[in-house]
Amino acid sequence: MNKEFSKQSKKKQSIERHERRDFLKKIGLMSGGTAMGLLGLFPLHACGNLGKGQNRILVPNMHGMTYWEMLMFSCLQGLMNRTQANVFLYYPEKSRESWYSRYPVDDERVFYNWYKKYDHLQFEEIDNPYGIFEKIHSNKSFQLNGCVIVDTEVPATANIGANYASIENLLPVTETILKNNKEYLTNLPVKRDLRGQFQGMSKLEIYEWAFEQQWPQANHSRVANLGTPQAGPAEQMPTNSFHTSNRARDFTVAEKGFFFDLASGGGEYELKDRIFQAMDPQGYVFGWHQGAGETNHIRHLSKHGQLALGSSTYAANFSFHSRVEVPGAVERFREKVVAGLRKEEVLEEKIYLTFILSDGNSLNFITRRGLGGQWQLPERGKIPFGWEILPLLAKEGPGILDYFQATATENDFFVASVSGIADFYPRAVPKDKLRGILQETGVYLEKTGLSSGVVMGPKGPTDDGRVELYHEILGDKINGIIEGYDRRSAKDQRLFYKEKESQHDMVWLPTSNPRGGKALDHWIQEIKELSQSRTRRPLFVPLHIPAHKLTITDMVKLLEELGDDFKAVSPDMFYRLFVSAHRNSVVVNPPESFPPEEMILKAGNTNILTPELQNFSRNPKNVNLGVTVTVIDSTLEIQIEELVRLEKEEKTELELKVEIPGKFKDKAGQLEYFMNGRSSMRIPVKFI
């Protein structure tokens, strides 16, 4: 057994009491220097009622459990937590992926320790998980009708057994588990036996059977795409593999949902498509992609207007997170978010950066060590920094939101993660379904106070009026949205002015992430080059930080390397400053790649330049566009000017003819755009 877990000395309990009092004081539940006691503020049913008058939560230690045992206990947890929070499964193992192994904290320790700070939640730790069966014989708060024996030689029966947990309240077990644990499971009747039933069937045939036989009884708004090992024997099955983990089963069982394991490609696409089609609108898709990649999986479910809870293969205990009562948690989170919006900043001739960490749409990432361990890093709080967070946690994890707001610094700012209430690609969602999703997103933005967001496309919903739909529905709640990851063009910058007093001016921007490499020195180099080529000031550079490659520690170093010309601000402040800088401006939009790739001009020929001008003003504008072409280490220079009139909020592409003398051939140079006499952009040139 895990020794650290089982040590509960009086000294430790005393320390925890002091920490709890400090916590109560911090969140405003201390009166006259004395803790009011959260138990008096919460209804008794907030905690598991697992005995005569005893309100407590059982915490089995899952250390050393096999694949099949984790399947059993996770499904049992879902059944026990179906109506109220009774069980929290503690997984002491550390995740094995390289990006998590950098942070030496147990996966579940952060939130388990957090919940222990609430006085109304009393926990009983159980070293031997099978001891939970001794605690529940007299418990009438949940229904357990018996067990279903899975076939260890056909691992897909793990999902079939989990479906029976959902729809018939049966506990999935193996023959070995029953034989070796008779003292705990004697009174558990065998209601179904899957051994031999699916021998010789393909995975696709098994899930066709499940869709026909089990789906009709399941909750059609909750599914989980969770992998199972493809072959036995049981002792070789992974217990902590990304795609085959059993940790995340409890939530879908508690919700009476449906399990399957299908890819969004190849021969499995059609059945998975029928499942998504049969779901209720805006259903939850737990788990993750299985074999055809993230993009195909999210695009597939988006086509049907369903919602992914990010990657959630390891997202343990959401039957607990979603049901434990933490009164005032969402309101406190909202107050924290809104307080950050009250700050003011004077617009300067700076290069403004805003940092938003990715993967806040992933329940794996959120719950494992608190945003993958990045929330625990000592550099947090040193710079303004945006943290993606799933708005749906207001419903499915209010205690998680309470943790983040209570431990946040003044430099921590929360951003609605992709692409709204949960994870989807707006470009792939039919517009009628997108409208409904955005309306529901608005409800959760109102609950949480979140006023900035990230959208994934994967190329961004910049066509067919989808951007306008975001503004129409969310314009009274959102200051700005960025298109996540490494977009390279600034041509899709949008500024929507408020049409009524209740609305915000809303900014829609592509990110300015460096191309290709993910190393910090690569980012520093490209951002410096970007600032040298785009000479307009102030300049706005939104950065979407890939959470599995870079950290807030890296961004602190990046700011130090870039120098005083650069300034980091919160995402919301970034958008407000962008509006101030662009409200009455016309800009030259950069080419598709920036820092700009070398432009080829033909010497001895007439060349056509096609700069794009964008008028952000609500009024027509006359501007003087200047172009200068120079040769490096030479006095040779070509200048042209053109007076251009743009109507309000017009974007137009010009055609400018430039004669390049033959003597420029085989030389290098530079093309520079000027707007009303001020430098706007420089592009390297090669003359051929």
Polypeptide structure, described:
The chain is of the alpha/beta class and about 700 residues long. The N and C termini lie far apart (about 75 Å). The relative contact order is 0.08. Residues about 5-15, about 30-55 and about 230-235 have low confidence and may be disordered.
Helix content: 25-40%
Secondary-structure class: alpha/beta
Amino- and carboxy-terminal Cα gap = 73 Å
How many H/I helical runs? 23
From the alpha-carbon coordinates, what is the Rg to the nearest angstrom?
28 Å
Give the uncertain stretches in residue-range form: 6-15, 28-54, 231-235
- The count of β-strands is 30
Principal-axis shape equals elongated
Strand proportion, as a percent range, falls in 15-25%
Largest sheet: 5 strands, parallel
How many domains make up the coordinates? 3
- Average pLDDT for all residues: 87
